[in-house]
User: Fold this.
Amino acid sequence: MTEAPIEIDRAALDGHDAFRRMVVDPCRPVVIRGAVADWPLSEIAASEDGALAAYLARFDAGRQVEAFVGDAAIAGRYQYSEDLSGFNFRRQAMPLGDAVRRIAAGSDSETLYVGSLPMAVALPGLAEDNALPFAPPGVAPLIWIGHASIIACHYDMMDNIACVVAGRRTFTLYPPDAIGDLYVGPIDHTMAGQPVALAAEAAPGDPRYPRFEQARHRAVTVELGPGDALYMPKLWWHRVEATGALNILVNYWWDAFPVGPDQPFPTLLLAMSAIAARPPAERAAWQAWFDHYVFRPDGHPLAHLPEERHGILGESPANAKMVRAHAMRMLRGG
Assistant:
């Protein structure tokens, strides 16, 4: 069983430093109860007088958005077709205001949601009216609005604060090292950008995914109500079920531990291209080098030398830039 997330109360976070120390640095999921309970958006969304659409209309910049639209029969479960060639929903462009009104009105014939909308672009001013004081400075929020839905188990390449504004959400979490047991789908043919764990939707004993039985018991379920938030470190797998008739989530994505201009995932793609098809013995040799120089289970690879002799492996931003420049010259054949 994976260790349960830490739970803290919003009142314990009195600023960015406390958020960093208590939430980010442990590199574990953390539930923050009451994180956005005092937002005007949360309070208006909880009312039953139709005020939400009017409130959002005050900020609506009139942008076209891409909505996921499915027949009522899919019950909000957005996923691949059986042969993985397509999906069980369609993407439809529409004005944001129309999407909000359709979602708020409810429907017996369709399920709909719009997601990953930069608030500064689609709803300018809304973020300022609903600020998260402990969020990292300069991180711009995104908003997700929809009917009841089940979003397939996936990961994010960035750290994430997911804030439930309306409805209830159930997050089912798996740690990053469960990846081999989750039967991940294509990385270049996805529903919304990230590969998904195909086995996470399977019934127990499904013969297509025998290794998933090793991961099933590692799942951790987190229940969030309106006003609650969940911090998830990058690469944690999460399946998300929104159960309200109207669901709103605001999230913040950022890299909590940047060390240079390059992101890890493109580096992984390049390593796959260069190494994955080589013979097993050579792959094992490169694995030893990656462990030594990158993952460093025994510490810094030049710890046996004085720091002034660490060269470009010294711990400084300038050295990181030199490593990158050296790698780029090699990629160009220089």
The longest strand covers residues 110-118. The chain is about 25% helix and 25% strand.
